[in-house]
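Sync notes, pocket subgroup
Present: LS, DG
LS reminded everyone that the earlier model was apo-only. Rerun requested with magnesium ion included. Inputs:
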Amino acid sequence: MAEQTVSPMMQQYFEIKKQHPNEIVFYRVGDFYEMFYDDALTASRELELTLTGKNCGKEERAPMCGVPFHSYETYVARLIAKGYKVAICEQMEDPALAKGLVKRDIIRVVTPGTVIESSMLDEDKNNYLCSIYCKRRRGRWKAGVCFADISTGEARATELEAEKLGPAIITELCRFMPSEILICPGILDFKDVTAYIKQHTSALVELREDACYQDALVEATMAGQFGAGWRKAMGYEADCLVPYAVAALLNYLQETQKHGLERIKSVENYADAQYMRLSPVTRANLELTETMRGREKRGTLLWVLDKTETSMGKRLLRAWIEQPLVDADAINARLSAVQALYTANIARADLKEALSHVYDMERLTTRILYGSATPREVKALGDTCARLPQIREQAAACGAPLLEQLAQQIDPLQDLQERIENTLVDDPPATLKDGGAICSGYNSEVDELRDIMHGGKGYLASLESKLREETGIPKLKIGFNKVFGYYIEVSRSYTDSVPDTFTRKQTLTNGERYITPELKELENKILGANERLLALEHQLFAELLSDISAQIVRLQRTALAVAQLDVLAGFAEAALQNNYVMPEVDGSDRMEIKEGRHPVIEQMLKGSLFVPNDTLLDEGENRMLLITGPNMAGKSTYMRQNALIALMAQIGSFVPAASAHIGVVDAIFTRVGASDDLAAGQSTFMVEMTEVAEILRHASKDSLVILDEIGRGTSTFDGMSIARAVVEYICDNIGCKTLFATHYHELTGMEQDIYGVKNYNIAVKKRGEDITFLRRIVAGPADDSYGIEVAKLAGLPASVTKRAHAVLRQLEASAPDHNKPIQLDFETVEAYNNPPVPSEVVEKLHNVDIETLTPLEALNFLYELKNTLDKE
Ligand code: ADP
Ligand code: MG
């Protein structure tokens, strides 16, 4: 490209673009951000903007599109969401004052993991930037991983060491769900990790070069950020990989942000073993924070438990749900805090009232640091500080050790509150554009300038009367015109009385016009007041922001304590509203629940009541509950409810039960229902078996395992054999608490053969051909599978269910053992020698893949069968 021939501005653009070839450059020109060439083509396509051209000195105009600067956030947000990065190029000087070409520079690169604008962030979700570094040491793979949320200043890191490093990394990614991931080249060899990121996240991946992880660079970066003694202060061993990951993350921030670095004040080291292990599949199955279908919040545990008042609380609650504790003492500290808040009705109400006025301190702090906070937002921070003493007091008044500790951690920030209150007006404008943010009495020049602007006329009038008095000229007037500005007009008859200090400016037919130094000064003041006032307000506001920024550490600590109080008070509120009890949590092997309920389904059942059920599980005689019962009886619900109750207890929440004793579980594993993994191209059976294999490999004695109808994806005998072998393996080799639901009746015989297996079933009442679900779990095996009755309940036409009964009777008659219940599945139908069913129906049945049918499709399919039957 012949860049010499282009216009100076385009030349400047090319210089800047050269440094950011992979980002879309938003190039500020006056009131617009403009994009050129390929960037313009991309942006106009993605944002549906009109593509135009710009004269650039060359014959061909440069393709161009633009967005107004005041609404750029939404456009940037959309590009980020589509996986692009945007470099913001600003005018670095006032175009009106610039001599020649306006100076421009990239002030920030916006990427999914470095967003700070509230319009681009979910208020109730953290936005994590992740950095992973891995290395082989003495034949073993290790990895350092760091997750940082620039918008809140939180940073956490840990070192992973595992025989299979891939799954360990994936588990961490699942915990934090980062929106952007920085990886070292070594990670590319972990195909499971790269496949996971590609298929299961929408995170942007940045490959960092090996040079980013050089020892010298890491040392310099860490020392620069955390001080020379960082290694000792932060407790990293010499061969720990965490600093590499942290340093790479900091360097990336340095490259892309101007201020992001200062926000990271410390890194919290967390150990994997501090939290309950939850595989990605289990998180999804238990619908902790989003539903399987629809991926919504409504219908999840988060939805039921969210009684928080603040955004900070909402984010922390989500984090707690994603990371249940395993230390009984830590859990009990939370539970006693909830208990105290639960009992202290008045203090809790006051606390929640105060919290409801608390703004998002964490994210406000970041925007203040970036200098992008508005006067209104800063005022909100001040108002929030004003609530802190009350929050402190109410928390301490409830009288639980954890609450007292949190109260201690809340800094009332009175100095900041006063600083803000003394600086800003009571109701500041949404932007500083037109001024009006600094309150009167804060700065004498501001007051004077405002006086002049608003009282300019008064000044003139008083100057006028003063001059009349001094000169004795009664008709002396002060006037204004565009050419001379302000002047003093004296009529011809009095020109002799004019003092020497007056300078003549203009002669009129019947008088003279003069100016004086005093009048000139006043004129300058009046005319320059507005401009000066705006500049001064900007300066004072910037000083305020930097004063607040200096207190980040105090703000951060306070924000975290407030967030915890909010979550705990929310637990107490949820407990009251939903009738939960405090669980007894200890290190025992027992899980004993009286009248347990499913926290989500009981909320979803409008009008009808949820039927509570008891549970007794341990690591001995009652280690495996084998649950049988017809479809729709409530097996899946019962098993999930037990998992959720254990999980709720371990995040410190009360639980939906009459009483609950939970021995801490170190992990929950689930294999539940049809998985959505079909999209990934694996057959259901393969997915199921991979998941079961995973469970058998990773479950420990203290884990809770839920197996829902395993072996369903293959033929009956294969399925039953696998199910039985799995049960034997778990009982004999792992010994963990397990809930196992199956519709294979034949498996109920295991109770006699295997130690620890107990038969249960979910009772149904049969009357003639109709059944009623009782939803009660009772000891012993189910007596029938009631498949046809359930089908009838589901609305299958009577002629079809009647026919099904007939087929079943024939099958039973031809079976060698009459008493043994027979599964009516499609294989046995096929086995039937002389099928009375018309051939086309059989054909259709052969071809259908039941596992992939939705209930609606299944119903439609039945109608289709019926129609075919009627036709033939
Ligand atoms: P299964 O796994 O045995 O086929 P599910 O657990 O899926 O049955 O339960 C089917 C439906 O029955 C649930 O969606 C729920 O609406 C209802 N249900 C289950 N258990 C209960 C209960 N204890 N009380 C009330 N309704 C229940
Ligand atoms: Mg089920």
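DG: Confidence is low (pLDDT under 50) at residues 675-681, 818-835.
LS: The two ends are 75 Å apart (CA to CA).
Action: DG to write up.
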